[in-house]
Design brief:
Strand order of the largest sheet: 4-3-2-1-5-6
Number of domains: 2
Number of helices: 3
Oligomer: single chain
CATH topology of the largest domain: SH3 type barrels
Number of strands: 6
Radius of gyration: 22 Å
Helix content: 40-55%
CATH class of the largest domain: Mainly Beta
Structural class: alpha+beta
Order of helices and strands: EEEEEHHEH
Shape: rod-shaped
Largest sheet: 6 strands, antiparallel
Length: 149
Amino acid sequence: MYSQNDLKDKKMFVRVFNHEGKKIGRGYVAVATDSTLELTRSMEYAIISLKDIDYLKTKRSAGNNMLIGSIAGATTMGILGAATADPDAWIFSYTPAEGAAAGIVIGGLGGGILGGISSVFKSSMIFEINGNKEKWELFKTAINQKTSQ
C-alpha cells in the first residue's frame, strides 16, 4: 500500500563516448561533479574524467528495444502456438512443439520489428561535451531538471 506513494529516484541512463567515438562507459548517472561523471550499473561503479568525454547519449540503444520486443513476442506467440495446437485438425494440424516453434519464430520477428519501430519514438538526446566545462555545466543542468521532474 505504501509502495504506491513512494517516489522513485529518476535516474538518467547514459552512454559515454570518447574522442575516437568508442563507448567508454554506460549506466545511470550517480553524480556529476565539476570534473567527473560517476555511473552505476548493477554492481558496477565507474568514474569517468571530463577530459575523456566527447559526447553522451541518453536512453538505451535501438537494439535494446528490438531485443525486448523479440523476447516478449517470442514468448507470447510460442505459448499461444503450443496452446492452440490440434494434431487432429482437418486443415491445419500441428503438434504443440511445432506450434511453439512457429510461434517463437513469428513472434520473435514481429516483436523485433515492433521494437525497432518504437525506438523511433524514443526521445533520446545527445550531449556534445568535448571536454568543455561550459557544455558540461549545461549537461549537469539538464540532468538536474530531468531527475527533478
